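Continuing the batch. This is chain 6 of the set; chains 1 through 5 are on the previous pages. Same settings as before, nothing changed between runs. Recording input and output for traceability.
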Amino acid sequence: MAVVSNPFTLLKRTPIKKRRSKPRRGPLRDKGYRDWLRGRFMCVADRNGWHDCSGVMDPAHTENNGMGSKGPDSSCVPLCRTHHREYDAGRKAFEKKYKVNMKLIAAQKWAEYQRERAV
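Output for chain 6:
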């Protein structure tokens, strides 16, 4: 019979797998809404009136869902590429420069989309 100096060396530790009661839920994604925004006018005006920005409007997220991730699509507003880059560079400065509340505009656009979709 072999003598074992430490009886616990024969036992292997296996971690107990934890299961989530609910699956992880990411931010709301709605491709239809983002496509709908691309057909809208830009939501920023300067002193002389609306900007004459040509090209496709990009949906700009006004909320973040943590570091390096986008917020829900319901927080998007239509901006041209130039203004989208300016907005991403400094959100507070952008809102101050153009005197807009982007989160309020996003809520209004989302409500408008929901009304059109319900009809």
